[in-house]
Amino acid sequence: MRLVESLAVVRSGQAIVAQLGVKPPAFDLECPLMSLPAVFGTTPDTVPWVGAYLAAEPALIAENRALFPTSGLRVGIAWAGNPRYRADFRRSMRLPTLGQLLRTPGITWISLQKGDAVLQLAELPPDVCVHDGSSRDRDLAETAALVATLDLVITTDTSIAHLAGAMGKPVWILLAHLADWRWMQCIEMTPWYPTARLFRQQKSGDWIGVFERVSEQLHLLKHRRVPPALDAPAA
Prior knowledge:
Layout: H1 8-11, H2 36-40, H3 58-65, E1 73-78, H4 88-91, H5 99-102, E2 107-111, E3 130-132, H6 140-147, E4 152-156, H7 159-166, E5 171-175, E6 196-200, H8 207-222
Parallel strand pairs: 1-2, 1-4, 2-3, 4-5, 5-6
Helix pairs in contact: 3-6
């Protein structure tokens, strides 16, 4: 709720946010969020994008910027979604499988992970460091404040992907071979989030191939030979 209140339409007084479980004010019409593209006749060419539409609180951003010692790029990482999702076994992974990527020099890795998957931080070998940035966050507004301090977010198909995309933050999304419908097929970008890049499995279960491509692009990014997002403005 605190995060959604950063929407311009809410800040301007043109909309109000109703909390789940609390009786909403009187309204004339209800439309589920996922039905809005059908109502508006949205196509990939007409997806609305006027820039970042979610933002973090400046005071929280300042607090998070000083939390972790930084060497090189600050990269946030999330590797697992809600385990109750029936296809979670396809989209989520175990953190230790990212070991080689996490050894990339010149990167400060910061975990954006919540839930039981956070325990996997303790399974990393001594030569790999990932700071626990979000396990104690009370809400997504606090996570957004940390995301605002990062140079890049790398995540599987989780809420973190949507949070970073809505904030206009460069985000690399690691996708299963059979990914969620909203990421479409055979493309490396998404009209919903112009600052996102999609890294897809070439065949079912092939995370190794995804890691290799991400590692290559990460090395190029460190030397600023590629932008962190396909449509991101030049640094």
